[in-house]
Amino acid sequence: MRDDAVAARDAVSQGDAGDMNDPHASATDFERLAARAMSRRGFLCGTAACGATAFVLGAGGMVGAPARAGTAGLDFTPVAANGLDTITVPEGFSWHVVVRWGDPLWSGGAAFDHAKRGTGESQESAFGDNCDGMALFADGEKSVLAVNNEYVNLGIMFANRESGKPETADDVRKCKAGHGVSVVEIAQAHGVWGSVQDSPYNRRITPDTPMEITGPARGHDLMKTAADPAGTTALGTWNNCGNGRTPWGTYLACEENFNGYFSSSDPDFALPAGFKRYGIKTEDRGYRWATTDERFDVSKHPNEPHRAGYVVEIDPLDPASMPKKRTALGRFKHENAEVTLAADGRVVVYLGDDERGEFLYRFVSDGVYTEGGNNADLLESGMLSVARFADDGSGAWVPLTPETTGMMSRAEISIHTRHAASAVGATTMDRPEWVAANPNKAEAYCCLTNNKNRGVKPNAGGDLTPVGGPNPREKNKYGQIVRWRPDGGDHAADTFAWDLYVIAGNPTVHADARAGSANVNADNMFNSPDGLAFDSRGRLWIQTDGKYSDEGDFAGQGNNMMLLGDPATGEIRRFLVGPRECEVTGITWSADRKTMFIGIQHPGERGHSHFPEGGDAAPRSSVVAITRDDGGPIG
Ligand code: FEO
Ligand code: CA
Ligand code: CA
Ligand code: CA
Predict the structure, then answer these.
(1) Which atom of ligand 1 is nearest to the CA of 239?
(2) Ligand 3 (ion): which residues have CB within 5 A?
(3) Which of 128, 138, 380, 477 has the smallest CB count inside 10 Å?
């Protein structure tokens, strides 16, 4: 989510929500970065995946890259940056909208009203706002799309109100219903995908849907409330950002900036210990949920915030199933949950905590995945660890246990996870966004989107944020992508080797480290990598959520975009440019791999878009299908 934009427009601050391996003490930052970028060749060539495709990355761009080679086998002419209010894809590709904010999922629902922008009732039976992470599931011939609806743009949803905010109880109902997860069957007719109204799969999961609390925190005193004295059942999920999918066919929705919905009717209420680290405050930030739902009033129900900030597991093919909050995966501002398997079949989940100076985590299940077996509760118990990066390119996963953290119990670690990670000296990161694991080799990548506080200010827990390691630039405006290769090729290994896949920047404006790494040039430059996923062929798709001013430090970068990266060569090409003031986030594919689905989130968040309908229409977050005109696969 665009924290600055949200703060400006909605008064809801969602994002407040060392040296590199320094070979020469006198080297400039750029020289050190260049040395690191060059060293990628050595990193990659230690593996069989390297071979003939590798070449030396030069400071001026991709030396030796042919003019129109397919990035990792997908042939396209890169698109130029632009500021258009539409989607731009390469020649030979096409796009269309699949489902938008406010589209009714049942035939009884009201059509979207561009003037009033819906009611509580219409929103409860419609696709939610601000689509983010998504995954497509197949049930025989049926295609079922699960999509996070991260938040709402108050100024857009409540454009019918002078205040631009919810004013009535029904406004608050509408606002809540815009959040959560939409599960919707989609189908293709004459090459065009659309939602299937009245499908038995269709479901809205909202901040009011009952969920089971599982894992170490289940039943702990900190989880007990007046409505749930056992601490085992919570209501709802909200601010679901990135996602995950499991090999056993479930969907993972990740609760990110959950804190911004709580407030206190008593302005003098003394916030419990631990609230500060998670940004839970007494002031309402515009959503006003506590005015109609007392559980969001922390002075009355101080344990409620302990019941949010988790990964939620959902069975998208069973609309009657109760979602499960997986506390074993920790409580923080979850970005996504990238699931892979260890050599012995245990489930490994990589997890980023998207806030300035927070951490990167890994969960390894106790149980082992077996195809066709009972895998339903593999995410209920396991070991949560946090990453510590060393400047020499090595790193370690530090387990979070009562012994390592000094905390009382696994339950407490599952609830106050940030405190636990601080206690073991985890590496403060430049806002970890999505993690993606390469399907072709044991390595994983994480977008570190940006961090204006790097080298300037500690994180919310007081941990220092020195410049260095995978966070090499002070006041980092552009972001970078770190990757690691677990030792022994096993994602359950305790140690790893890391490097930076790309350091974003603007080489047309800067000649120092802000120009970015060698694989960034005037034709592919971008800022703030966020969404990240590998396709089935091992190509790396990079989505951005950054500054779209197109001036100053960001001159020539245009709207937010999606790029395609080759993990073997480092080559990056711009594949798509989104409409004005959007973020491109969320990605999944049809079963035949001939359609790629992506999310266009918050077009016009500052008032300058009418995407997708144009004219005077309200801007609407949308799921978009992208196909090849020749009918070939796209991932
Ligand atoms: Fe919801 Fe970190 O993006
Ligand atoms: Ca972001
Ligand atoms: Ca977002
Ligand atoms: Ca994000």
Answers:
(1) 1
(2) 1
(3) 138
CB 355 within 8 A of CB 385: no
How much is the pLDDT for 138? 98
Spacing, Cα 449 to ligand 1 middle (Å): 10
Q: How far is the CA of 488 from the centre of ligand 1 (A)?
A: 32
Please name which ligand lies nearest the alpha carbon of 601. Answer: 3
What secondary structure, in 3-state letters, does 72-126 show? CCECCCCCCCCCCCCCECCCCEEEEEEEECCCECCCCCCCCCCCCCCCHHHHHCE
Residue 155 phi, psi (nearest 5): -65, -25
CATH among 2.30.30.220, 2.120.10.30, 3.10.20.340, 3.90.1150.10 for 7-66+75-256+309-628: 2.120.10.30
334 Cα to the center of ligand 4, angstroms: 9
Q: Determine the Cα–Cα distance for residues 5 and 583; give it in Å rounded to an integer.
A: 11
- How far apart are alpha carbons 71 and 88 in whole angstroms? 18
Tell me what pLDDT residue 70 has. Answer: 60
Of 3 and 234, more confident: 234
Element (H, E) at 622: strand 622-628
Looking at the CA of 545, name the nearest ligand. 2
Q: What is the DSSP annotation of 186-207?
A: EEEETTEEEE-TT-TT-EEE-T
Query: SS3 for 597?
Result: strand
Side chain identity, residue 542: I
- What is the rounded average pLDDT of the residues 202-224? 98
* C-alpha pair distances (Å), 98 with each of 104, 188, 189, 477, 579: 13, 10, 12, 33, 16
Mean pLDDT, range 18-46, rounded to an integer: 37
| Confidence at residue 36, expressed as pLDDT on a 0 to 100 scale | 53
433-465: per-residue pLDDT in tens? 999 999 999 999 999 999 999 999 999 999 999
Ligand 1 atom nearest residue 17's Cα: 2
Please state, in angstroms and rounded to a whole number, the distance separating the CA atoms of residues 153 and 185. Answer: 25
Average pLDDT score over residue span 354-369? 98
- Helix (H) / strand (E) element for 348: namely strand 346-353
Q: What distance in angstroms lies between residue 600's CA and the mean position of ligand 3's atoms?
A: 10
Domain extents for the chain?
A: 7-66+75-256+309-628
Q: What are the DSSP E strand ranges found in 516-594?
A: 529-534, 540-544, 561-565, 572-577, 583-589
Q: Record the tokens describing residue 347, joined without a space.
A: 């489930």
DSSP 523: T
List CB-based neighbours of ion ligand 2 within 5 Å. 449, 530, 545
Burial of 200 (0-12, 13-18, 19+ CB in 10 A): exposed
DSSP label at 5? H
Return d(Cα 92, Cα 89) in angstroms, integer.
8
Identify the residues whose C-beta falls under 6 Å from ligand 1: 1, 150, 241, 256, 335, 354, 433
**Model confidence pLDDT, tens digit, residues 384-422:** 999 999 999 999 999 999 999 999 999 999 999 999 999
What separation in Å is there between the alpha carbon of 240 and the centre of ligand 4? Answer: 10
Ligand 3: centre distance to CA 256 (Å): 10
Average of per-residue pLDDT across 277-289 = 98
